[in-house]
Design goal:
81% helix; single chain; mainly alpha
Length: 125
């Protein structure tokens, strides 16, 4: 799957993750309290995957994309002490590691979103 051929639902998920991370980092929402950040992000992942996840693998991928991107971009947006290119180069791998946990959580929540979608779709048909 080429980057330019990504379905619209993936672009929507990417944009939503970036906007969410920006809002949470800039407006000091739950600064320093990871659980207060994780709960709204988890609710958003559940809603996105239940709404946009067509199949199980699609919901898992959407959850993984959202989880990784919201974690990764939040850590970049929240960092105010970058003064050199060397700091940026050091931070790239250091920020990827905790973002992989966000990917894992997003994948799990994507599975739960897919289950929610199946539950509601079965009742409406």
């Amino acid at each position: 799957m080429k980057l330019t051929k990504l379905p619209t639902r993936y672009w929507f998920t990417i944009l939503l993750a970036l906007i969410t991370a920006f809002i949470f980092s800039r407006f000091s929402i739950a600064q320093g309290k990871a659980l207060l950040n994780a709960v709204p992000w988890g609710i958003i992942v559940l809603l996105v995957t239940a709404w946009l996840g067509i199949g199980k693998s699609d919901a898992l991928r959407l959850g993984a994309v959202f989880g990784f991107l919201v974690s990764y971009s939040y850590l970049w947006f929240d960092n105010q002490n970058i003064h050199s290119l060397t700091q940026v180069l050091i931070l790239i791998p250091l920020i990827v590691l905790p973002s992989l946990f966000g990917l894992l959580c997003g994948t799990g929540l994507g599975y739960m979103g897919w289950q929610i979608r199946r539950m509601f779709m079965a009742k409406t048909q």
